[in-house]
């Protein structure tokens, strides 16, 4: 069997090699597909921190993805139309600067995760799943009714935002930004998993009563993991909106939350490169099978079914011969 560290290196190297080869043979659309996969993988990495380490099955993580997207959309919309943002007594001009937009998306998503986590973590099991789903639906229908920013039709951004020293309109350069963000998120997850925080969080996930006995606070640990998870997913939402130059209420949909969970399960729950493998497979099936049928999700469902029945550790679990954490 192959060591997981080698698999992680091979997956990331292969993922980087695809757009480089596409650049050589002048296939810019393939680079765009790779960028989409990188952004979805980044969102799934965020969820994987809550799910894989904390054991929190959230059906509302699209809230943070959507908030990140709308943070980007609103700031860019006001910048391109020279309309100031009115926040009570504060008046803030919009911006096309990616670093500022990313910081805003992370802070907004982290704050939302803090509030949602404080309420949701009072419950466990299926009740936690349902309350996160409820929050997701609340934000979804609010965005539909938010006519100032397009409502159900969404909001278009005509020109991609800017990053110092990078031409973001060049596909390979924008991919580089997204891939770098993904690598940073994977590094954060790896450090969290190996840190004392990751160990005590894993202990709180498996045996919360014993964790409380030794003086740990499982809710506080899970809340911190939930906030970090939401912040990373919010960053992915901002990048996704920039990739498409469009934001819409579908970014808050529960189907997106479910897809992120599916990506993690396919690759391997709690596995470092699990979301990367899952997102790459998802985008590949969506692109190639989607050309022949609108029902390509059937094949994705079949793969998921086989993994759940015969490979609980996902694709990485098959390669390493080890199951992932049980949630």
From TrEMBL:
Pfam families per record: BPD_transp_2
A GO molecular function held by the record: branched-chain amino acid transmembrane transporter activity
Protein name according to UniProt: Amino acid/amide ABC transporter membrane protein 2, HAAT family
Organism field: Cognatiyoonia sediminum
Main location: membrane
CDD domains: TM_PBP1_LivM_like
Positions of transmembrane segments: 7-25, 37-57, 62-80, 100-119, 126-149, 169-188, 223-241, 261-283, 295-319
Keywords: Cell membrane, Membrane, Transmembrane, Transmembrane helix
Membrane topology category: Multi-pass membrane protein
């Amino acid at each position: 069997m192959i060591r997981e560290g080698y698999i992680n290196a091979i997956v990331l190297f292969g993922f980087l090699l695809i757009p480089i080869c596409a650049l050589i043979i002048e296939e810019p659309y393939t680079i765009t597909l790779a960028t989409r996969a990188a952004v979805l993988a980044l969102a799934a990495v965020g969820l994987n921190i809550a799910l894989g380490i904390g054991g929190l099955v959230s059906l509302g993580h699209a809230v943070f993805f959507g908030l990140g997207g709308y943070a980007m959309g609103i700031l860019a919309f006001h910048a391109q139309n020279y309309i100031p943002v009115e926040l009570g007594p504060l008046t803030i001009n919009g911006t096309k600067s990616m670093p500022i937009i990313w910081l805003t998306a992370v802070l907004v998503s982290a704050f939302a995760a803090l509030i949602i986590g404080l309420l949701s973590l009072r419950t466990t099991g299926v009740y936690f799943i349902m309350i996160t789903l409820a929050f997701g639906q609340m934000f979804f229908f609010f965005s539909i009714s938010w006519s100032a920013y397009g409502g159900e039709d969404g909001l278009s951004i005509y020109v991609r935002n800017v990053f110092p020293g990078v031409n973001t309109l060049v596909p390979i350069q924008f991919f580089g930004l997204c891939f770098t963000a993904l690598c940073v998120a994977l590094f954060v997850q790896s450090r969290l998993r190996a840190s004392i925080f990751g160990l005590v969080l894993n202990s709180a996930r498996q045996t919360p009563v014993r964790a409380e006995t030794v003086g740990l606070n499982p809710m506080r640990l899970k809340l911190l993991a939930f906030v970090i998870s939401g912040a990373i997913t919010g960053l992915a939402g901002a990048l996704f909106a920039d990739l498409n130059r469009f934001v819409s209420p579908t970014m808050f949909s529960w189907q997106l939350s479910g897809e992120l969970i599916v990506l993690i399960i396919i690759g391997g729950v709690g596995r470092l490169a699990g979301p990367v493998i899952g997102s790459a497979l998802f985008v590949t099936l969506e692109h190639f099978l989607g050309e022949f049928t609108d029902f390509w999700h059937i094949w994705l469902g079949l793969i998921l079914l086989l993994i759940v029945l015969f490979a609980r550790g996902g694709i990485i679990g098959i390669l390493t011969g080890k199951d992932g954490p049980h949630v």
